[in-house]
Amino acid sequence: MQPTDTRLLALPEARWAAVSTAAFLLALPLHLLGATAWLWGPLYAAAYLAGGWEPALEGLRALRAKTLDVDLLMIVAALGAASIGQVMDGALLIVIFATSGAMEALATARTEDSVRGLLGLAPPTATRLHPASGAAEEKEVAGEGEREETVEASALAIGDVILVRPGERVAADGRVLDGASDIDQATITGEPLPVPKAAGDEVFAGTLNGTGALRVRVERDPSDTVIARVVALVEEASRTKAPTQLFVERIEHRYALGMVAATVLVFAVPLAFGADLTGALLRAMTFMIVASPCAVVLATMPPLLSAIANAGRHGVLIKSAVVMERLGQTDRIAYDKTGTLTEGTPHLVKILPEPEPGPGFAENELLSLAAAAEHRSEHPLARAIVAAAHDLPRGETHGEAYDFRSAPGRGVTATVAGREVAVGSPERLGEGTAVPDTDGTAVVVRVDGVRAGWLLLADRIRPGAPEAVTALNRLTTAPPALLTGDSSRAAHSVAERTGIPSDGVRAGLLPHEKAEAVREMGGRVLFVGDGVNDAPALAAAHTGIAMGRAGSDLALETADAVLVHDDLTAVPRAVALSRRARRLVVQNLCLAGAFIGVLVVWDLAGHLPLPLGVAGHEGSTILVGLNGLRLLRESAWRE
After folding, report:
1. From the candidates 69, 173, 182, 336, which is the catalytic residue?
2. Which of 84, 225, 307, 315 has the highest count of CB atoms within 10 angstroms of its CB?
3. Are 565 and 554 in contact (CB under 8 A)?
4. Which pTM was predicted?
5. DSSP character for 243?
């Protein structure tokens, strides 16, 4: 079940921001072309009202709570600019503020959509089994001496027995009583291949059953399933994650109080010593303009927004300026394995025909026989074997297989070129003691009842993964970690091939354990993942990046950034770009502070003409804005 994404214009913040922006864009050319104020004035007024009423209301609420935030300060600055004729500057400030608020509201709404959609992974109903002495209208299950009834999954209780048919999703966490099948539990553990399940094995709600039927005893209450805990963890992490603000916002309260108090003093003190009202008011208004935070705001936003735009051109979607700033603070990296460092799908890596005195098949002939037998199977391993056989020369392929039979958890059997070919699990085909040493999965091929050889399959390392890990190691102060729900053997193999130290590997983790591992790492952790099972860790990390193509809906919405093309080499470039943006922010703040300081001292110690004050203020604003735009250059990404 896919979540229904909230549309941008469904949010009131977005609608008001759109109205404000449209009014500003209509007014701007009229203003610049010298049209009468009766034409552009009402449009600017509409931009002020549409984009400013909500931040003004929030600012007044904060003021009532005895705090003075940047919302109210921006509105005062915009109105102050308008009062001395700088209507366009004030309107632009309002538009920027309204658009930023709309983007933040959209990000919040989309995350909530995905969390709700995750609940749809678990089926709404389940088939509950109970003795045949139950209600007469219930349907009898042939051969089982039990009856079945369809109930709400939320009504299941510990100890209930449920039937999971082929192709259905498991309705509750429990343990298999009887039956055999392969279950795709990538949503929970991230394992790339379906896992064979038989009596005594644990299964999870929301996982997808294969071709066999299972009777499962419920062992957890529906409110306490692993998938329910994933939802709870994401929501909790989103609520409790320490709020991170832009650098300028961390000083906004003190700056706002200082500016308001200073403006009042600049007006009141000369007036108390006999200055005329007009002169005192003009000096105070000049002071408010030259000390207003317009240049400070632009000192921060253009470098970060330019970095966001540059990263976006190269396939990294950064969701906000706060995220772009936070990305550069990373001091440790944690990776998911399947679908992140690896491609997430099995591939044939080696063919091992049985040596003499075995049947003596060549590699291509063994693969051809196995592929013909597996042709009708939908199992991921079967598809990998068939895909590998497509590259065989036409003369070395076998024709159609007959008498195809599939045994869940065991493998397939078919007649190929007059021979009986069995392909499947070594343990289930009686070859468990002879499995060759491999980091992936070994599949045995038997021809006419005799072992003919082995096919070794593994998940391939994603192109660029080792290079990305090496580059990120140079940018961080602590060694990287690998957190996965897959087996320890597979995890250590991937870690060795990508340059992650073995002591940083933690395998066999459930989603909540991944999130806990991220918290235990301490520091500013950047987590890179792709699946539903990674969502709690993405939410718990200081910064989370999701794989765009392979990523689940929940991972994409929970993450702070998305790799559109699944190119891991873009991650170190994005981190480096963030750090350059942070350096530019500091430069701009120093530059803006110097301009403000000079103009303020001039206004207080001498007589700063209002036009000159406005020119100095606007000049500093333009200067820091242009400085920030340097990060739009292609060289900023390559450096």
Report:
1. 336
2. 307
3. no
4. 0.66
5. P
